[in-house]
Amino acid sequence: MSYEINPVEKGEKVHFKNPAKEFYEALGFDGMQKLMYNFYDKIYESEIAYFFPQDEEEFAKVKVKNTKFFIQICGGPKVYEDEAKGMELNEYMVRIHDDFSITEKSRYEWLGTMEDALRECDEVSQELKDDFWDYLEKFSKLTVNTFSDQSKYYASL
C-alpha cells in the first residue's frame, strides 16, 4: 500500500475514527509495544527528535506513556486513563501538542517515521495497517498548529 498523506487546511473539520480493535488484537500488548518502541526509536533519530527529551531516561518515559495511548486507542486495556486527566483520549492528545509549534513538515516527518515502522511490522495484515494509517493520517492533522505564514491555529474535535 501507498501510505498517502493529505495536506492540512487550517480550520478544516477533520473526520476520523479510532483504529479497529482488531489491530490491537492481532498484535497484542507485546506486539503493540514492539511496534511503538520501534517507531519512537526511529523518532529519536529523526529530524523531529528535538520535540522529545534528549535525556535517554526521560525519553524512555515518553515512549512508555505514548505507547499506552496507542494501546488504548486501538482497543487494548485502559492503560492511559490516568494520563488523560479525565479528558477524552483523542482530545487530550491534541491538547498536549499545543505546547509545541507543530508544522506540516513536522507532521510529514512523524508520519514518514511511522510508515517505516509499519512496513517493518509483519505481525498484522496490510488491511489492519491501512486502517491504523487512516487514523494516524487524519488525526495527525489536528496536531498541526503552526502554518507556513507563521499563523497559529489550534484545532478542536
Please tell me about this protein's structure.
- This protein has 157 residues and is mainly α.
- The protein has a single domain, classed as Globin-like (Orthogonal Bundle), CATH 1.10.490.10.
- The chain has five helices and no strands.
- The protein is globular.
Fill in the keyword field for this structure.
globular; 157 residues; Globin-like; mainly alpha
Broad CATH class: Mainly Alpha
Share of β-strand residues: under 5%
* Amount of helix: 40-55%
Structural class by sheet pairing and helices: mainly alpha
Return Rg in Å: 15 Å
* Terminal-residue CA separation: 28 Å
Oligomer: single chain
CATH superfamily: Globins
Number of helices: 5
Q: Strand count, sense and closure of the main sheet? A: none
Whole-number mean pLDDT = 95
The succession of helices and strands, N to C, reads HHHHH
Number of discrete domains? 1
Give the low-confidence spans: none
C-alpha geometry: globular
Instruction: Report the CATH topology name.
Output: Globin-like
CATH architecture term: Orthogonal Bundle
Beta-strand segment tally: 0
Task: Give a short overview.
The two termini are 28 Å apart. With 157 residues, this protein is mainly alpha-helical.
